[in-house]
Amino acid sequence: MSHKAPVPSTPRRDFIGGIAVGAGALLLGNVSTASAEAISLAETSLVADEWISRIKGKYKQIFDVTTANNAFGAAFPLNFINSTKEATGAADADISTVAVFRHFSMPLMLNDATWAKYKLGEILELKDPKTNAFATRNFMKDAIPLHNISYAQLAAKPNVILVACNLALTVVSGMAAPKAGVTPEQAKKDFTAGLLPGVSLAASGVYAVNRAQQAGCTYCYAS
Question: Which domains, from first to last, does the chain contain?
Answer without folding.
Answer: 50-221 (3.40.1260.10)
